[in-house]
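Board work, copied verbatim: Calsyntenin-1
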Amino acid sequence: MVCSCSNAFHRMIPEMNRHHYAWFVRNCRLILLLRRDFSDGDLNIFRPAEWRWKLPQVCDDEWHHYAVSVRFPEVDLYVDGSLFKSEKKNPEVIDDWPLHPTKGINTTLTVGACWQGSEKKMKHHLHGYLAGLSVLLNKVERPSVLACLHKCKESLDVPPMELLEPGMELLTNSDLTELSIEGDNKTNLEVLIKKIGYTNSREFPTPGRRNLHLTTTIMCEHGRTVKVPNVESYVMVLPPQQPTLIINGSSNLASDYHDFRKGVHVFADVHISVSPPTSATSALKGAKIEQPTSSAGAQERKLDSCVVTVYPSLNPDHETLAVPTT
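↓ predict structure ↓
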């Protein structure tokens, strides 16, 4: 999935093919390779360098979310947002020597394959699908964030259980991404399917297409089964429209020299207003847009940042901008 290795053919070591770190799948095992650099410790000490997890999820042909958290020499694996409980020989940990220093050799980071410096070509390609990849350097992510990355706060909206007629059964998986309805009441089956929805409670949903698959199997008398052609559909999550940001205030500030010596407020009458974007769907349908308000009746808005620049630059000997401490 991701690989970092030496990117050149070295004249002194023509067979050089050093993998610095990699995250890959082999023989239904999820493997992390992490070779410590020579500057990270004693060259003559064996250190953990490879972790091999044997997981049923790796080869079940289903989508899964994997995250690895490294506090060397401790390594934790999260599968679908849950911490993997290590066993006696799972993961299998392989020790190795640190990488010895070599001058004039850089590394190449690749996704989906690994660069072989000795052969000057890509090898060990990923035969599968990768929905996303992120790397957090010099930090360790919180378990709650890893769980959220898996669940994503989006799921199928399950029909109310009180709609189930006698003889009907409704089952879901733990992530509410799969739903199964069984029974012999055709009318109730139609009602339940019509009540299935899609919900996304993220404050800023990830735009994109969410594919939907409807599979139907009919059980006839004498145990014969008939498969109805699958139905394919999708939900398209549109990117959020940008709100309108308006900043009002005095554009010029004039004051006496003595006031400047004491300090003056340069944005004393500034006013920032945010106009909510109009929903494209609601606008097309002519629907009324209701905006949530706080208990005081004012619309709450979040600003990521506010940057103040001065041009020409201030004279540091006697000019400064200060931020209030209270």
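DSSP finds four helices and 19 strands in the chain.
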